[in-house]
């Protein structure tokens, strides 16, 4: 069992994983796949009017949209972590009737068009919705508020975190958790000292995906939250609106959105390592 | 389509199940082959999908048309109902012609046409957007106005905020939704508010008139400003309150053939139908004003 092997020096470790089982022709097909994503990006960048770039993105409405997008995406990512981690734990570790159905339903926002998600939120939290009237009695009105934007983003982004974390939890297995339990650790201690440190890379990449998805959210926000500068009009909505009258500003803002997303993802996203390899690299403590 | 979805959701279809799968796919193909037949039968319905065979409707016109081919009509989203009907009438008059319709926001369509989309006719919801097409040298001749539209106030059934006039939307606490000033219906809202001497404080400035209508029909907003044709099409889902302005902002709808079109004769024929008595009746039945 490699997991139980003693830690080896770094140089030796790297060589032992040096073999790449990728036939040459795979690179050619992979290049086509990569170009399919990269060419449209280059096409857009070629349309950016660099001379006026700063002027185009620093208008009052653009800055308000950028700021709102960053704020709401941060808030919704936090919500995704708060609710997504327990959800992934329950799906990966617990066993109960209807688990498969529950998983399928929770992943639904990945497949339904965001506009449909927005409608679903509207029919639940809207004024005439399922919970809307009770909320109104409590004096809570969600529609047309920044809270509605955060809810729409959380709705579409949560599955990304749950999916990513559940996969990592399953690959990590329960060996170490079981050992800790036999040594007398209580479930909460096992979670804090063993499980979470072990799956941290998966959690981080899940959170980054959720943040990126929140940043790009358009349909659910438009349907559920509306569009008002500084309150609900996030960067994607501003881009759509600018396109009506000022395509150059829309292109500049699109580039800004892509740049922000690319920086966030490149800096923080790591392909989740197999937990066994993570352990080989050094015990998670 | 449904059959294929069932395939992928089914259990493991490898190995011994492969033959069964092929049989099932065969059944699916046989069913799919029936689809055009079903569409052909549905083609005589007035709101049938564009591009379907309407030979069954041709009996009403004894003159056999010489025109044939495909006509691509790009039209503003607010023309969806009327142009779908007019396309069906056009196909009924010219059985060998297929009209393909594309509806979207006027500026989206102009962007698509300037990027080479195969449009033959373009109908815009405002003059400014048509001017963009003409300025880019993509319109044949000068565009012709064929309809007009004005704004109206709509409220959800039951009128929760008790709105009885345009001035009431400025009352504190009223959740008003309008189009953003950058889109045509928003520009009209701004100038109508100015001519009524009102300061509008909307809770949302939507990106399209459909967005406004959706917020009102779902009861989320207390009031919204939409075109009279949108209010009429929404039926009982909204209550309409006229703005009663002495000089309302009128949006003119121009239509033009696209310069790059290879179906010039068809395009002119369709424009003649829209601007002629037959087209005008359809448009005015839907609430559009005279051009």
TrEMBL record, chain A:
The complex is composed of two ATP-binding proteins (CysA), two transmembrane proteins (CysT and CysW) and a solute-binding protein (CysP). One of its GO terms (molecular function) is ABC-type sulfate transporter activity. This is Molybdenum transport system permease. The keyword Cell membrane applies. It comes from Arthrobacter glacialis. It is a multi-pass membrane protein. The lineage of its organism: Bacteria, Bacillati, Actinomycetota, Actinomycetes, Micrococcales. Keywords: Cell membrane, Membrane, Molybdenum, Sulfate transport, Transmembrane, Transmembrane helix, Transport. The chain crosses the membrane at residues 21-43, 63-92, 104-125, 137-165, 194-212, 249-269. Part of the binding-protein-dependent transport system for molybdenum; probably responsible for the translocation of the substrate across the membrane. Its main location: membrane. It comes from the Bacteria. Belongs to the binding-protein-dependent transport system permease family. CysTW subfamily.
């Amino acid at each position: 069992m490699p997991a139980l092997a003693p830690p080896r020096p770094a140089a030796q470790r790297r060589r032992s994983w040096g073999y790449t089982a990728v036939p040459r022709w795979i690179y050619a097909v992979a290049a086509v796949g990569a170009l399919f994503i990269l060419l449209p990006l280059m096409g857009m960048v070629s349309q950016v009017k660099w001379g006026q770039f700063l002027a185009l993105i620093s208008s009052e409405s653009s800055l308000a949209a950028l700021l709102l997008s960053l704020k709401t995406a941060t808030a919704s990512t936090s919500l995704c972590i708060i609710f997504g981690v327990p959800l992934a734990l329950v799906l990966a570790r617990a066993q109960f009737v209807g688990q498969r159905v529950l998983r399928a339903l929770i992943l639904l926002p990945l497949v339904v068009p965001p506009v449909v998600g927005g409608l679903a939120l509207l029919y639940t939290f809207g004024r005439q919705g399922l919970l809307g009237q009770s909320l109104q009695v409590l004096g809570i009105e969600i529609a047309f508020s920044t809270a509605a934007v955060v809810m729409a983003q959380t709705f579409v982004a949560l599955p990304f975190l749950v999916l990513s974390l559940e996969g990592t939890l399953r690959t990590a297995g329960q060996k170490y958790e079981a050992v800790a339990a036999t040594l007398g650790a209580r479930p909460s201690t096992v979670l804090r000292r063993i499980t979470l440190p072990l799956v941290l890379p998966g959690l981080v990449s899940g959170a980054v995906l959720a943040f990126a998805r929140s940043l790009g959210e358009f349909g659910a926000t438009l349907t559920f939250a509306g569009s008002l500068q500084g309150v609900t009009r996030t960067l994607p909505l501003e881009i759509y609106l600018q396109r009506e009258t000022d395509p150059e500003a829309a292109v500049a803002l699109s580039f800004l959105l892509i740049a922000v997303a690319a920086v966030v993802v490149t800096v923080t996203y790591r392909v989740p390592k197999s937990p066994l390899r993570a352990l080989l690299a050094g015990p998670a403590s | 389509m449904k059959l294929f979805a069932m395939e992928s959701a089914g259990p493991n279809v490898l190995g011994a199940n492969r033959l069964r799968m092929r049989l099932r796919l065969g059944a699916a193909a046989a069913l799919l082959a029936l689809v055009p037949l079903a569409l052909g039968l549905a083609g005589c319905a007035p709101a049938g999908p564009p591009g379907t065979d309407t030979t069954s409707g041709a009996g009403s016109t004894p003159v056999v048309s010489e025109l044939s081919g495909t006509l691509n009509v790009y039209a503003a989203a607010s023309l969806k109902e009327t142009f779908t009907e007019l396309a069906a009438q056009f196909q009924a008059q010219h059985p060998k012609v297929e009209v393909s319709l594309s509806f979207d926001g006027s500026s989206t369509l102009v962007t698509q046409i300037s990027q080479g989309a195969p449009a033959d006719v373009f109908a815009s919801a405002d003059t400014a957007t048509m001017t963009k097409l003409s300025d880019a040298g993509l319109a044949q001749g000068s565009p012709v106005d064929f309809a007009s539209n004005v704004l109206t106030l709509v409220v959800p059934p039951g009128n929760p905020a008790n709105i009885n006039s345009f001035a009431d939307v400025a009352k504190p606490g009223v959740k008003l939704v309008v189009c953003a000033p950058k889109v045509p219906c928003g520009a009209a809202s701004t100038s109508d508010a100015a001519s009524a001497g009102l300061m509008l404080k909307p809770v949302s400035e939507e990106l399209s008139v459909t967005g406004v209508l959706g917020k009102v029909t779902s009861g989320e907003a207390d009031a919204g400003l939409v075109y009279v044709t949108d209010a009429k099409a929404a039926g009982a889902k909204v209550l309409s309150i006229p703005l009663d302005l002495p000089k309302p902002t009128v949006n003119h709808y121009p239509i033009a053939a696209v310069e790059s079109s290879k179906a010039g004769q068809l395009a002119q024929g369709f424009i003649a139908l829209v601007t002629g008595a037959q087209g005008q009746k359809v448009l005015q039945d839907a609430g559009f004003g005279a051009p």
